[in-house]
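Review form for a predicted model. The reviewer records the input and the model, then writes brief findings.
Reviewer: anonymous (R2)
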Amino acid sequence: MLQIMKEAKTDIVQDENGRADVLASRIEALITEARTKVVSFVNTAMVYTYYEIGRMIVEDEQGGDERAEYGKKTLQKVSKRLTDKLGKGFSVDNLQNMRNFFLSYSKYETLSRISSEEHSTPQFTLSWSHYLKLMRIENLEERRFYEIEATNNNWSLRELERQFDSSLYERLALSRNKEQILELSQKGQIVEKPQDLLKDPYILEFTGLPEFPQYTEKKLEQKLIDNLQAFLLELGKGFTFVGRQVRLTFAEEHFYIDLVFYNRLLKSFVLIDLKRGKLKHQDIGQMQMYVNYYDREIKLEDENPTIGLLLCADKDNAVVEYTLPQDNNQIFATKYETVLPRKDELKKLISNR
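Model under review:
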């Protein structure tokens, strides 16, 4: 009887501890969420404040007779007084950034920017550090694209810098006509069909591999796995990792797909094969076999057709075109590079199309 009472007491204590753990976890999650919202609110409030400070500086400058000299001397005096009263953060350079911020973003209405109905203040969704980076992008359409994508994908400043440095906008624009390029600046990247995911080329500079393919496909694959977070960022929206060297067995033979992903937006498996050298028609045929197998044996009825992506160091467009059927919308071949591209060369390709 005593043993039973001890066991019952132990069960009660364990139950109480379990309930306490659950309650504490829920409270912790609520507090963490609240703190995140507070930080986000403070950051947003500061951005709006800097915009209004920029407005005040510009309006004050416009009232001066000799604007350049007047503005410079005024900012020096304002900087000293604010620093004495409020501390760091109000150097002449920072005040100048706020001025440029207002001048840059007060012109955004021409790009159908959402504004308040009561005033002409734009809506800001990113941190001040993000906007300092965005202001340095001269092309307004390109700047707006990166702002939308950074907001929608919750990019950190580092991720924004990486996407800009890898010329994401230009690489997406290369596969689009003029109307679609304009749409990029108005809506960002919209993923509705497999072609919307494609970039040409894919930039894999995070692998640290040399420009020329003096390495094996196995080493490239390992580098991508080692830098999976960066690779997912490069692949784009909606990707989740499934596996590497995924084995398929039929006709008493084993075949291995280098990398398998799933795209939640398209509800499709995405099979990736890596080719170190020039793409051959046999490589395309093999990918067709992988895609067929997944469509017939793996994907569910409510999922969309499987996508095959061949990442190669070099390719002949004619080989790709004549190997695949004319109505192909499942298998794609595109180049990859392990060094950052030159933006001026990509811009030239866009303008010459």
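Findings: The first strand starts at residue 202 and ends at 203.
Further findings: The first helix runs from residue 2 to 62.
Recommendation: see findings above.
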